[in-house]
Amino acid sequence: MLNFQLSEEQLAVQEAARDFAQSELLPGVIDRDTEARFPTEQIQKMGALGFMGMMVDPNFGGGGMDTISYVIAMEELSKIDASASVSMSVNNSLVCWGLEKYGTEAQKQTYLTKLATGEVLGAFCLSEPEAGSDATSQQTTAVLQGDYYLLNGTKNWITNGSSASIYLVIAQTDPSKGHKGISAFIVEKGMDGFVVGKKEDKLGIRGSDTHSLLFTDVKVPVKNRIGAEGFGFTFAMETLNGGRIGIAAQALGIASGAYELALAYSKERKTFGKPISQHQAIQFKLADMATQIEAARLLVYKSAWLKDQGKEYAQASAMAKLYASEVAMNVTVEAVQVHGGYGYVKEYHVERLMRDAKITQIYEGTSEIQRIVISRGILK
Ligand code: CAA
């Protein structure tokens, strides 16, 4: 059976997310972007409403919802504020998911509950100055010394870099084993030797706090290792398979937000004696935008559905992210064009959405990495 109908619960999530985006994210979104200011208050409210641990078991403070509900919420929030929604995506997909699936009972009790309720924020630390797409080239090391590891290295481009309290850090525990010598650790802000470094001044998602992190002889207890030694690379890859669904949903939201603004503007703005929506040049743009968004939505929902069904979803999530991020870029560029000169100024929001769209083609695996994942899936 093929059913495109959302459930009552999913529709309720959609409405709640839409209302929250309009009432809480929209006010001030332009200023936060201009000033590169993190949406602290808004993220706290998102936690209180259950958006920060949507799929986590309610026994650990989560919402116990399906992945479809999560992508629906991501889409609605991303229409308005992609800086807030990336924090949500990282916390849900890259931090809570892996802790719930692979963490010990004690790790879940100590960390997951606080993360899922939004009491604290998490960050996922894989990328390094010399290891972005080539993620196996980890230079950060964790050397076992009795009942703790000594962690040394630098991480780059870390979302929630300064606002997080709990960091999942990937590091080399045995360089002789390549990617099979990589492990994952839970590091807390405040541990001696852990310093939050430079904040990046970015093109888009300027409200999101992206930092480098520096670790110098940080003592990480053995009990903070996630899974066995050597499991860290698989842990990171599996985590990113799900993370890409969240970013695909974000891209879908950015595209939908820009399209809705362009559609509304086209009905108001008049040229040559009629609304520009009555000119075929604009009608064809709207038709292309709507078609691309619908195709992206089907890929995003399908990847979420596969995950919910316990089926293989790595290739589907890579396809969803690849396509939705390219759609986000195309649609936002066209939305600016529909607005003409007004689209080029901040007040009309679409220029911000265009800048925000670009990162969806880069983080959680560039479009080129998605093509690697997809083609390997096809050819295996
Ligand atoms: N799912 C599960 N396992 C995977 C996997 C996937 N998608 N991709 C690779 N693996 C496994 C492989 O099966 C292999 O395991 P075995 O040796 O046990 O068979 C192991 O990982 C190594 O894989 P490869 O030999 O394919 O390694 P590679 O070096 O050729 O390529 C890569 C790996 C797919 C290119 C990988 O490096 C990659 O995904 N790079 C992109 C990293 C990325 O997405 N970074 C995003 C940073 S996080 C971020 O952006 C968060 C944020 O702040 C918003």
What report would you give on this structure?
The strands form three sheets. Strands 1-4-5-8 form a four-stranded mixed beta sheet. The mean pLDDT is 97. It is built from eleven helices and ten strands. With 380 residues, it is of the alpha+beta class. β2 (141-145) and β3 (148-159) form a beta hairpin. It is globular and about 80 Å long. The structure holds acetoacetyl-coenzyme A. Acetoacetyl-coenzyme A (CAA) binds at residues 86, 90, 94, 124, 126-127, 133, 135-136, 159, 179, 233-234, 237-238, 240-241, 314, 363-365, 369, 372-373.
Strand order in the largest sheet: 1-4-5-8
Helical residue percent band: 40-55%
Taking the alpha carbons of the first and last residues, their distance comes to 29 Å
Named once each, the bound ligands are: acetoacetyl-coenzyme A
Low-confidence stretches: none
Radius of gyration: 21 Å
Task: Briefly characterize the structure.
With 380 residues, the protein is α+β, with helices and mostly antiparallel strands. 52% of the residues lie in helices and 16% in strands. The two termini are 29 Å apart.
Give me the secondary-structure topology:
Blueprint: H1 8-25, H2 29-35, H3 40-48, H4 67-80, H5 82-102, H6 105-116, E1 122-125, E2 141-145, E3 148-159, E4 166-172, E5 182-188, E6 194-199, E7 210-221, E8 225-226, H7 232-268, E9 270-271, E10 274-275, H8 280-308, H9 314-339, H10 350-359, H11 367-379
Parallel strand pairs: 1-4
Antiparallel strand pairs: 2-3, 3-7, 4-5, 5-8, 6-7, 9-10
Helix pairs in contact: 1-4, 4-5, 4-7, 5-6, 5-7, 7-8, 7-9, 7-10, 8-9, 9-10, 9-11
Bound molecules: acetoacetyl-coenzyme A.
Acetoacetyl-coenzyme A is lined by residues 86, 90, 94, 124, 126-127, 133, 135-136, 159, 179, 233-234, 237-238, 240-241, 314, 363-365, 369, 372-373.
